[in-house]
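Page 37, continued from 36.
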């Protein structure tokens, strides 16, 4: 089975094109766990399948977390798949990608830089108490990708194991019925943010989270803390940029821009 490994700001993925490769639909969860294993597989935060579009789109993206669970969508994954789609002749410089969370549009800015329009927020709650802490809760798309955003100016001074334990507790908090990706956030200047995300499905911190960045900037824009225009989010794997349109107490047209990288292409047989 042929595959491509890519990453966007350190958020890494295995891509399989089911237009060319045969994949058993009943075995995809197990396949994701096998391929994403850091020690016994290729190693990745998630598995992405390219599949035929069911509606008016260039192709369909099915995203599976490293634990085998089906994800609604992945922002950095969608940026990578947009580059894959362009370079493999599936679409032009501007493309329409079906996801479980709804339609995503991708755009080629340069050879490695790609921008996507994230799914509009379907749920916005700027003050939701979880585990005794005041979090913002955002869902992008419908069904929505759940994100909890916690402003914590000293998060990068806390021992990693302690921060991980807090992230895990919030990820499973009863305040978030679907669970949540949890981002710890601090402002670093005018439209500058430093953040890290504990991701649902990976069950650990990742080097970057694209939908996390979109949710962070959505929340902080509606709180009046950033402008919502070309906001820079620094994550452990690199810097991403988010712009959005604000309309009263909601937001739409959330655009995520950042780098993509083709790590390698290969073929795996023992699966």
């Amino acid at each position: 089975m042929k595959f491509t490994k890519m990453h966007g700001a350190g958020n890494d993925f295995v891509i399989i094109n089911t237009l060319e490769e045969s994949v058993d639909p009943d075995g995809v969860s197990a396949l994701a766990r096998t391929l994403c294993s850091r020690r016994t597989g290729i190693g990745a935060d998630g598995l992405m399948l390219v599949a035929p579009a069911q509606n008016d789109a260039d192709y369909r993206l099915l995203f599976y977390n490293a634990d085998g669970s089906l994800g609604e969508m992945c922002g950095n994954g969608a940026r990578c798949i947009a580059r894959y789609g362009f370079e493999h002749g599936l679409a032009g410089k501007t493309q329409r990608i079906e996801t479980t969370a709804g339609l995503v549009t991708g755009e080629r800015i340069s050879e490695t830089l790609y921008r996507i329009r994230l799914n509009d927020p379907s749920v916005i709650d700027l003050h939701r108490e979880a585990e005794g802490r005041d979090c913002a809760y955002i869902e992008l798309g419908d069904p929505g990708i759940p994100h909890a955003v916690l402003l914590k100016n000293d998060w990068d001074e806390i021992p990693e194991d302690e921060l991980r334990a807090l992230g895990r507790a919030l990820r499973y908090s009863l305040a978030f019925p679907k669970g949540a990706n949890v981002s710890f956030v601090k402002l670093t200047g005018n439209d500058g943010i430093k953040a890290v995300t504990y991701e649902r499905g990976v069950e650990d911190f990742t080097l970057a989270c694209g939908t996390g960045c979109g949710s962070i900037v959505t929340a902080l824009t509606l709180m009046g803390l950033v402008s919502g225009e070309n906001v820079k989010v620094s994550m452990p794997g690199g810097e991403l940029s988010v712009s959005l349109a604000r309309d009263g107490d909601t937001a739409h047209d959330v655009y995520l821009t950042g780098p993509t990288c083709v790590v390698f292409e290969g073929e795996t047989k023992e699966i």
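The two ends are 9 Å apart (CA to CA). Flag for discussion at group meeting. Residues 75-87 form the longest helix (13 residues).
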